[in-house]
């Protein structure tokens, strides 16, 4: 009975850390699975910003880049090509964010920032959780906005919706706004994919040698 109790206690203690970060799981390969929204983020929040040459990008270019993105997942030896921009919300109720509507956050970046990472307006130390290189300001000390999927016809002509990581708010952006950043996301969990790690050359060499020895042994028997 004592051994059974200690075993249960060990399982409970070991399981506690995973419960505290159950919403965002590091799947390896630079990918984070969001269990609540059932989407996978690229862990490096500036991956797209740097890949497309810094700030010189507008909404059309951002959308085209993320749709053409082929990201190599080293943990599973898989290249994912089904990326998209995070969802946005064109009904910006107070001109800044949908959070004022009783916490009814419809955009993926907003839900991540406010609910899953526990940030709030005015906090100086923004919690970034398992992510790295989140973007707030560019080299000219201007606020960087992450592009979302929302673009006309719902909005006024030539406008899209962007997300400020520095304070967790949504905003309208002109379609040719070039201070935006791209944070790619895909639907589902990459962890559900089978791991297809290539067999190292040393293993192939060992296997070939073993087969050779077996062949020699068979000849000696005959």
Quick overview of this protein structure:
This protein has five helices and ten strands.
Describe this structure in words.
The chain is of the alpha+beta class. It has one domain (22-192). The chain is 29% helix and 19% strand. It has helices spanning 2-20, 47-51, 59-68, 108-116, 201-221; strands at 24-28, 31-34, 39-42, 71-73, 78-80, 145-151, 159-164, 169-174, 180-181, 185-187. Mean pLDDT is 75; it is low at 2-21 and 93-102.
Q: Helix fraction?
A: 25-40%
Helix tally?
5
Number of domains: 1
Shape: globular
* Overall number of strands: 10
The whole-angstrom Rg is 24 Å
Give the SSE order as H and E letters: HEEEHHEEHEEEEEH
Alpha-beta content class:
alpha+beta
If you average the pLDDT, what whole number results? 75
Give start-end ranges of low-pLDDT stretches: 2-21, 93-102
Strand content: 15-25%
Strand arrangement in the largest pleated sheet: 1-2-3-10
Query: What's the end-to-end separation, in Å?
Result: 59 Å
Q: Biggest β-sheet, characterized?
A: 4 strands, antiparallel
Give a topology summary.
Elements: H1 2-20, E1 24-28, E2 31-34, E3 39-42, H2 47-51, H3 59-68, E4 71-73, E5 78-80, H4 108-116, E6 145-151, E7 159-164, E8 169-174, E9 180-181, E10 185-187, H5 201-221
Parallel strand pairs: 6-9
Antiparallel strand pairs: 1-2, 2-3, 3-10, 4-5, 6-7, 7-8
Supply the key terms:
single chain; 222 residues; alpha+beta; four-stranded mixed sheet; 19% strand; globular
């Amino acid at each position: 009975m004592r051994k059974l109790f200690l075993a249960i206690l060990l399982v409970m203690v070991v399981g506690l850390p995973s419960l505290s970060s159950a919403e965002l799981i590091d799947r390896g390969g630079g990918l984070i699975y969001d269990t609540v929204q059932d989407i996978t983020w690229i862990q490096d929040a500036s991956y797209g910003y740097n890949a497309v040459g810094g700030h010189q990008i507008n909404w059309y270019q951002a959308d085209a880049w993320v749709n053409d993105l082929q990201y190599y997942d080293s943990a599973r030896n898989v290249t994912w090509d089904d990326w998209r921009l995070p969802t946005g919300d064109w009904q910006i109720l107070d001109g800044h964010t949908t959070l004022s509507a009783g916490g009814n956050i419809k955009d993926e970046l907003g839900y991540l920032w406010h609910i899953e990472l526990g940030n709030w307006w005015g906090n100086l130390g923004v919690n970034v959780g398992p992510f790295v290189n989140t973007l707030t300001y560019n080299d000219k000390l201007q606020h960087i906005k992450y592009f979302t999927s929302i673009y006309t016809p719902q909005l006024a002509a030539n406008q899209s919706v962007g997300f400020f990581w520095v304070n967790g708010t949504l905003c309208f952006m002109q379609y040719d706004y070039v201070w935006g950043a791209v944070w790619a996301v895909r639907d589902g969990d990459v962890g559900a994919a089978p791991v297809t790690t290539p067999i190292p050359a040393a293993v192939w060499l060992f296997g070939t040698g073993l087969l050779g020895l077996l062949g020699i042994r068979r000849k000696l028997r005959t």
